[in-house]
Amino acid sequence: MLRQEKEAFVSSVKNELASQEALVVLHHSKLKFGALDSIRRKSDGKAKVVKIKNRLAKIAFEGTAYENLSQFCSGECIFIMSDDVVSACKVAYEFESDNKEQIKIISGASLKESLNKDSIVEYAKLPSLEELQSRLLSAINGIGVKLLRTINEAPSSLLRLLNNLEKRG
Predict the structure, then answer these.
(1) What is the distance between the alpha carbons of residues 160 and 44, in angstroms, rounded to a whole number?
(2) Taking all residues of the chain, what is their mean pLDDT, rounded to a whole number?
(3) Is residue 45 located within the same domain as residue 121?
(4) How many domains does the chain have?
(5) Separation of alpha carbons 143 and 112, rounded Å
(6) Are residues 108 and 155 in the same domain?
(7) pTM as predicted
């Protein structure tokens, strides 16, 4: 890469980081060919998986919310960034689970906090935003259905009572 290409690349990474909510750093060793592509496919666009040279990553992190992650840029690094903290953590955790011997979660950060491995695993085990939305909608829908049953039950039971009285009477 020429110097101008490197500067353009660093600038594009900086711009990308500005629009992201979270960044997770992973170290890898002896990663199988294609493993990076498979995790990119599995992430379904929820997170961006990139491999950047450490020196370029350190330069790109300068002046961003992720500047403190520069200290982890040593060895073979993979960066997972997303506009959703949970998605980035889920992708990183799944990637580590699929490649236990080759991948190790090191650290991460969101715009609000630094993330250690334990907090990344905790975030990864949270349900996704879509799952939470569906649970909330089903709960709201369930309340409405129960309310309608309760409202309809009063006239129905009154009619049953009147029918029973008429039959006796």
Answers:
(1) 55
(2) 87
(3) yes
(4) 2
(5) 35
(6) no
(7) 0.74
